[in-house]
Design brief:
257 residues, alpha/beta, three-stranded mixed β-sheet, 5 helices, elongated
Length: 257
């Protein structure tokens, strides 16, 4: 059988191409026209923070369609590293909304001055005007972080270990009467945390309880704190008579005063 070739009239093809080109031209013209209309120039910026705390006046008057939201978000995040995330949203026809997501500080890190650290291992400062939190203090990272940069993530094993220690204390109900005062990670093989008592219902017990040193090292943190929880359950009020507990060995070492 012979194959029949389907041929379109040349005039029809030319007409179709002409129409498509004309439509593209019109769309492009309308897009440029819309971008130049005052109607779409930014006149107001809403922020989920106290009014006057930030100055974004440089965005006012710009066309809402010409702003690169991701680029502006990255730039503002660099300006305010205390925040975990900053996102921009268009509210047509002429408004922007800037949303700030706070970082949740888990501890202070003592360097040449104090910084906060969150679960992302990022160092940051508390926003101005915010009261200091009652948080554990991590010491011994001066050599590991000689020139700290706010907002930068520091994936350091000792810092990860310190945050794991805090997590174990805060998530285990057996430690609900205790809090970590500080964690010394100067020597990775001899990482220690210092625990105080929060049980104010027994005033005498709280007065007798001095800060307890617990030596944990840097490995098997979860297992070691399960052992520590068992010791706390067994010893109860006798904990106030302990100078330190060493969990770095197969069998825990308890040193009494």
């Amino acid at each position: 059988m012979k194959k029949h070739k389907i041929s379109l009239p040349i005039k029809l093809v030319i007409s179709g191409i002409t129409i498509i080109v004309a439509l593209l031209f019109i769309i492009g013209y309308l897009a440029v026209a819309l971008q130049n209309l005052d109607y779409f120039k930014i006149k107001d910026i809403a922020v989920n923070r106290p009014e006057g705390a930030f100055d974004f006046s440089e965005l006012l008057g710009r066309n809402i369609f010409r702003i690169d939201l991701k680029k502006e978000s990255r730039y503002i995040t660099e300006l305010y590293p205390v925040y975990k995330n900053i996102r921009l949203f268009r509210i047509l026809p002429n408004r922007l909304f800037i949303g700030f997501t706070d970082r949740n500080p888990l501890a202070y890190v003592k360097l040449y001055r104090y910084f906060c650290v969150d679960s992302d291992l990022a160092l940051f400062e508390l926003p101005q005007g915010q009261e200091a939190w009652d948080l554990p203090v991590i010491i011994g990272l001066e050599r590991k972080i000689p020139g700290p940069r706010p907002g930068k993530r520091y994936n350091i094993k000792e810092l990860i270990t310190a945050l794991n220690i805090i997590k174990e204390i805060e998530t285990n109900s057996l430690f609900k009467k205790y809090k970590i005062e500080r964690i010394d990670i100067t020597n990775p093989a001899n990482i220690s945390c210092f625990i105080s008592r929060l049980d104010y219902s027994n005033v005498q017990a709280a007065a007798d309880f001095q800060v307890l040193e617990v030596k944990v090292g840097q490995d098997d943190i979860s297992d070691k704190f399960r052992v520590l929880a068992g010791l706390f359950t067994q010893l109860k009020d006798d904990i106030s008579n302990i100078k330190y507990i060493d969990l770095r060995f197969k069998e825990p070492v308890v040193k009494f005063k």
